[in-house]
Specification:
The structure holds two protein chains of two kinds.
Chain A (H helix, E strand, L loop, with lengths): L3 H10 L2 E7 L4 H17 L4 E7 L4 H6 L7 E5 L5 E4 L5 H7 L6
Chain B lengths: L20 E2 L6 H4 L4 E2 L3 E6 L5 H14 L4 E5 L4 H10 L4 H6 L3 E5 L7 E2 L6 H14 L3 E5 L1 H6 L4 H17 L3 E7 L10 H5 L2 E10 L2 E11 L8 E7 L2 E4 L15 E2 L4 H6 L4 E2 L3 E7 L4 H14 L4 E5 L4 H10 L5 H5 L3 E5 L7 H15 L3 E5 L10 H17 L3 E8 L19 E9 L4 E10 L9 E6 L2 E4 L6 H8 L1
Parallel strand pairs in B: 3-8, 3-9, 4-5, 4-7, 7-8, 15-19, 15-20, 16-17, 16-18, 18-19
Antiparallel strand pairs in B: 1-2, 9-10, 10-11, 11-12, 13-14, 20-21, 21-22, 22-23
The chains are: A alpha+beta, B alpha/beta.
Chain lengths: 103, 491
Amino acid sequence: MSGKSFSGNFKEQKFYEFILFVAGNEPNSMMARKNLKELCEQELKGRFNITIVDVMEDFDSAAAHNILLTPTLLIQNAISDIMVIGNLNNREKIRAALQLPLE
Amino acid sequence: MNISVLTASAAPEKATQSIPKVPTGIRGLDTILHGGLPKGHTLLLNGGPGTGKTLLAIEFLYHRALAGEPGLFISFEEYADDIRANAFSIGLDIIKLEQSKKLQILHFQIPHRAVRSGDFTIQGLLTLIKGNLDTLNAKIIVLDAVDMLMRVFGDSEREQEEMYILNDWLREQSLTAILTVKSMVQEKKTYSFLDFMADCIIFLDQRTTGQVRTRRLNVIKYRGTDFLSNEHPYVISSNGVVLMPVSGVSLEYPANKKRISTGDTIFDKIIGGGFFHGSSILLSGPSGSGKTTLAVTFTRAACSRNEKTLYISFEESQDVLFSRSKSIGIDLYQDWDANRLGFLSLLPESAGVEQHLLWICDAIDAFGPDHLVVDAITACRRMGSEDAVFHLLLRLIVICRKKEITCVYTNQKDTMDQVTQITGLKIASVVDTLVSLYYVDDGTRLSRRLLVVKSRGSNHSMRYHPFVITDRGIALASSGKTGEQVKNQEG
């Protein structure tokens, strides 16, 4: 494919900003933290920043982002944020949301 | 917007102190619930689309807010501005209460478009609710369209678990809560587990019979307290939701003692001294037999004694009735000008029975009449079913008795037959006085007869009294004929 090298270059430059909303240490929140960390370290090395917000402690942030369900991952984007809900145990779906190439 | 007078004395005293309750302030509902909603517990408000769940819930918060108890309204479906506008259309100014921090409407957008990856919980929601409740210092909450929230889980088992978590949390926080849920009979999803979860369940329903829509409210269960069962029709009026529970109308009313004139001295004599003040009178007869003439004769006489009369017409406009009356020498214009006569013209097809009853009751409250004329009750058939008409009239009769308002109803018989339809619309047994008007065909001409069929507590004439309608009103013959004589004459 002719565009391959270009998209490769573009990918190299992309930086990912994540906000993960969790609810204390309940199981799904623990799992989401672990799953996100693994994904980032394996696939986005050096190109990510994770902010973790515990809704039990930071009501204002939860309210500002209308977070009803936990865990919720916000992938911050120039156009609009992408929202992923759940404990992030399905990596393919997150890869799709991040527009990473399929393996 | 207080609890309606119609129902104020109705709650049985033994049931009032069962469990702590929060009054809803909705006209008639507290009578049905024997005081209000269970304090610190959950009401499940279930009903199809358009039944007024949201309005009923917001009106509850509105009344509590006016009473100084702040409340939080969370919508999972409608936008806050739409709810404010809808509430305003039934006379509830929410914005003012929001400004004074007594009420808050929030729309929580459910992330339907979000990517799902694994399991999640509603902990974020609980946190948001808690934060907002604390800011408002509120102990009352409405969660509107909870079904929309549950759909996010897409798995009935998970939905159920999360709803139990929500319910337990509401209980822990001692919140008085209303959860509204759309009932989806057609769909398989009915959320029947919710029925076991809630402490109080109200079902709202709407049906259309004879092109007229009737809304009904039914309390399915109420833990730890008594309530009025049955289905209760309700109206969403420009003054909020209104219910007029049948069983809430007290049967105790003062016995009528004072006599008042019928407007015609001979008629007074025939009936045994006039009508009793505060009694109910039914004038029955075929079309053109003189029912309206008798009714306006009574009206004019009452007004001339300076007694206020409210005339409700289902048949004629004010102009037509007044000019027709004037042509037979009965001038109602002077009474109208002197504000002794109130007039309400209603089109039966325009609304259901409950709405009509509400309009009439509102007119009675506003005008404060001594007497009421309803011409003709038979037109009420066009409001829906014949049965519904009976309910409207029975309730109107009882309401008026309690307020000591004399009621004159006219009833149009479809046939000229003397025997049939004497008990027209079943209300003949409920009224105190029944007067029947007839046409008699003597072979050469048609003449009119008046017969007092019954008049409670009166020694009335049992004869058929001939009468004519002249340009100076009604002219009755005091020496009537017995039924035998009339029949012989006919034969």
